[in-house]
Write a structure and sequence with these properties.
Low-confidence stretches of chain B: 1-20
Order of helices and strands of chain B: HEEEEEEEEE
Strand order of the largest sheet of chain B: 1-2-3-7-6
Distance between the termini of chain B: 33 Å
Oligomer: heterodimer
Helix content of chain A: 25-40%
Number of domains of chain B: 1
CATH superfamily of the largest domain in chain A: Cytochrome c-like domain
Largest interface: A-B, 26 and 21 residues
Number of domains of chain A: 2
Number of helices of chain B: 1
Mean pLDDT of chain B: 86
Strand content of chain B: over 45%
Helix content of chain B: 10-25%
Low-confidence stretches of chain A: 1-17
Radius of gyration of chain B: 16 Å
Mean pLDDT of chain A: 90
Strand order of the largest sheet of chain A: 1-4
CATH class of chain B: Mainly Beta
Order of helices and strands of chain A: HHHHHHHHHHHHEEEHHEHH
Radius of gyration of chain A: 23 Å
Largest sheet of chain B: 5 strands, antiparallel
Structural class of chain B: mainly beta
Amino acid sequence: MRRAALLLAASLAAGAAIAQPIAFDAAERARILSHGPWPMAWSPDPSNRVSGRPAAVALGERLFFDTRLSGNGLVSCAGCHRPKQHWSDGHARAIGHAEADRNTPTIANLRHSRWFGWDGAADNLWAQSLRPLLDPREMSFSIAALARLVRSEPAFDCRYRAAFGRSVPADDEQVALDAAKALAAFQETIVTGRTSFDDFRDALARGDATAMARYPAAAQRGLKLFVGRAQCSVCHGGPLFTNGEFAEIGVGHFVRPGVVDPGRHDGIRKLKASPYNLLGRWNDDRSRGTATGTRHVAAEHRNFGEFKVPGLRNVAETAPYMHDGSVATLREAVRHYSELDPDRVHSDGGTLLKPLKLADAEIDDLVAFLRTLTEPPAPFARRELTEPRCD
Amino acid sequence: MRPVPAMLCAALVALAGTAHAACGDALGAGTLVAASPRFDVAFRPDPAPIAVSKHFALDVVVCAKSGAAATGLGVDAHMPAHRHGMNYRPSVAARGGDRYRVEGLLLHMPGAWEFRFDVRTAQGSERVSLGVEIP
């Protein structure tokens, strides 16, 4: 016993002696701390009256994995948002009934998002969940067909009653919106696990040098670049590694020759036109306190070609990257910032993005850091759906 | 360092006191004051302090130092170094007297921001600005 303790102390001392501590100045420290703590506190979504209710989560999970929610009976949400690929699909652009124009993003960690979709055309998770069902290239389903399915399938009907406290209503649109809210309730439960970065960040907060030394030196150097000279944190800020807003970083805008993806500019137009936005009657938050962003967001010319700043948790698992899937690897994504052509970044935010001209070793370090934002493999397992008892 | 005479100290405090008492005292702790030759604009974020990429509102008091009184107010915020503003257009509601409530602001990046208050008078509009650093 005593001997083991001595041995342990000796090996810890040796470990600490080997690792060269990287020095962080006060500004870098503050920035690193602002990327946590993780996980974030969870609270129900006021715009969704069944948010956090187990019966709604159970209904949403069943809907999410069911291919009957599509025109041809072959496409489910999980066909594109695959649990094994961290809820993305590995394709450059999503493929449902046909190829779509954009890359499939992960659906993890969305509870605290302000905007949904690469262009932020939705201001809430339930409206975002309805969109693919109705898109002819994705699931090509309809409000009427969704309502019919919820009514006719006992496993849905039973959980609907448990979640919403009433039988399935006659109004198709009401049923579809409720189903979307159940889908949202399920997706809100998907939160990525703690990572070695989180351990380092918490050790830094405590001033625990021994624990900090366990974080690889390359990742520490990459982190220093990320919060410092490379300014990645300015957009990829906070515990989610996104400020939740939009930017243009000089990825191409062409969907195909002659067709441009206007990104955020069109997203704002769609948002304002949607009957399902937070200013509309389907928002369960009577105070409309959730609708501040929607009420005040205003399109500007610079929004052309802007896309949502993606969060970077588990980013190593979601290649290919960017709104159009045009970047195959993390290394290539980092190199993009090293070599970007300032003339291609047309928006006035362009003064922030200058080619970083990183050395190869610095690119390696940034990639090493980004990899530490990925949780150790913990395969998603469908829960035992005992809640509520329906079968 | 020579000790500052107590009387001078008291005078300085009194001066600072009156300068602020003239504008925005009622807003309470955390109030900032932007100044131009003709106006002081006192404003208090709600919630305070401002957090990056989180919505906040401002309670504002506009104080005319001399001459024409304010007839209206426009509010915006910019990042001079990045040459861009906010992604949101705040709304300004007059609350009677010199008071205004501004809703819907959000500063989406850390760094140097500048609040710009355009105080409207019968003679035109005057820009009153203050820089703030968002951590």
